[in-house]
Amino acid sequence: MTEQNTPRPFNPHAVAAAQYALNAAILDDDESAARLIAAILRDTGMHGVRDAIVTCCETFQHHTGFPAGTQLDQTYVHPETGEPIPESEAEPTLVWASHVIEAYVARDQERFETLFRNLGDDPEPVLAHLTEMVEHVAAQVMLADQTRRAALS
Questions:
Q1: Are 125 and 96 in contact (CB under 8 A)?
Q2: How far does CA 87 lie from the centroid of its chain?
């Protein structure tokens, strides 16, 4: 196997920080989530950011129960009214996070990698996009858990 085909190991610090950031976001502790997200970029660089994004995608998939290969069709809602809105009216960071999750769940590696590369390496937009990813996945985890609890009652 060539070096190009050898998978790079995940950075355990980035994965753990992403998991803690998701937990903080679920607990509505935005300050802790932001501190953890900033630490991912600062301490692990873009490789760690990628690992954090994969961690978020895996968390989304685990909690929502979508099997690998599923083609998702995510709906966007207005943040104040809760009414459905077209993708063009949604926040660009949310659209990006949704597309990354869609590509990951569908196992569309080429699209996933393209979306990640398009993120660039400028810290401010990277942090904004990773923050949106964490917040979006945290919200989806809470929604999936509420739905599961309601089905059991």
A1: no
A2: 17
